[in-house]
Design goal:
Elements (H helix, E strand, L loop, with lengths): L7 E6 L1 H18 L6 E6 L3 H10 L5 E12 L4 E8 L9 E9 L3 H11 L5 E9 L12 E5 L5 E2 L15 E4 L1 H5 L1
Parallel strand pairs: 2-3, 2-5, 5-6, 6-7
Antiparallel strand pairs: 1-9, 3-4, 8-9
Helix pairs in contact: 1-2
The chain binds 1-O-pyrophosphono-5-O-phosphono-alpha-D-ribofuranose.
Length: 182
C-alpha cells in the first residue's frame, strides 16, 4: 500500500507512472550513450530517489557522484552565483557527464551549475530531470531529457520536499495549500 499523507491534495504522478516513464527515458539515454560510460551526478538532496531508480533502469554503466549546490544572486543585472556545499570527487575532464536533477524551476541552479562544470572541460555535459516547470523559468536552460513537464504547482514527494518533509513519498503529489499557508 502506498504511503498517503493527509497534507497531499492529490497525487500528480503515481509510482507506476514514474517507473514507466523512467524506463522510456533510460532506453533513450542508453541509445545516446552507446559505447560510453558517463559520470552521473546526483544533485542532492531532491534527486536522490530519481537518481537511484534511473541508474538502475539504464543498461549503460555509469560512475556515480554526488553534489550539493544552490544558486543565489540572480537578478535582472546579475548572472548569479553557485554555492557548492558538496563537490564531486572525480576529475571530469574528457568524460561524458550527466547531471541528474529532480526539478528545474527558475533554471538558475542548472544554469549556474552547467557554467561551472563546463570550466572543467567534460567531453559532453547533459541534463536529465524528473520534472520541468517551464512557467517558472528565468534562466535560459533546458534539460536534454525530461520525464514530465508539469504545471506550476507545489509538488512534493519522490525526493522533493517542503521544509525537509515528504521526500519519502513514493509518488509526486501536490501539497495542500493549508500546509504552506498556515
Ligand atoms: C531544488 C531542486 C533544484 C532547484 C531547482 O533544490 O532540487 O536543485 O531547487 O530550482 P531552480 O530551477 O529555481 O534553481 P533545493 O535547493 O530546494 O535543494 P534540495 O534538492 O536539497 O531540496
Amino acid at each position: 500500500m502506498e504511503k498517503q499523507k493527509s497534507e497531499i491534495e492529490r497525487v500528480l504522478l503515481t509510482t507506476e507512472q514514474i517507473s514507466a516513464r523512467i524506463k522510456e527515458v533510460a532506453k533513450k539515454m542508453d541509445e545516446d550513450y552507446r559505447g560510453k560510460e558517463p559520470i552521473a551526478i546526483c544533485i542532492l538532496k531532491g534527486s536522490v530517489v530519481f537518481f537511484t531508480d534511473l541508474i538502475r533502469a539504464m543498461e549503460t554503466h555509469v560512475s556515480i557522484e554526488f553534489m550539493k549546490v544552490s544558486s543565489y544572486g540572480f537578478g535582472t543585472t546579475s548572472s548569479g552565483k553557485l554555492s557548492v556545499s558538496l563537490d564531486i570527487l572525480s576529475n571530469i575532464e574528457g568524460r561524458d557527464v550527466l547531471i541528474v536533477e529532480d526539478i528545474i524551476d527558475s533554471g538558475n541552479t542548472m544554469y549556474a551549475l552547467t557554467q561551472m562544470l563546463k570550466t572543467r572541460n567534460p567531453a559532453s555535459l547533459r541534463i536529465v530531470t524528473l520534472l520541468d516547470n517551464p512557467a517558472r523559468r528565468v534562466s535560459e536552460i533546458s534539460a536534454d531529457y525530461t520525464c514530465f513537464e508539469i504545471e506550476d504547482e507545489f509538488v512534493v514527494g519522490y525526493g522533493l520536499d517542503y521544509a525537509e518533509r515528504y521526500r519519502d513519498l513514493p509518488y509526486v503529489g501536490i501539497l495542500s495549500r493549508w500546509v504552506y499557508e498556515k
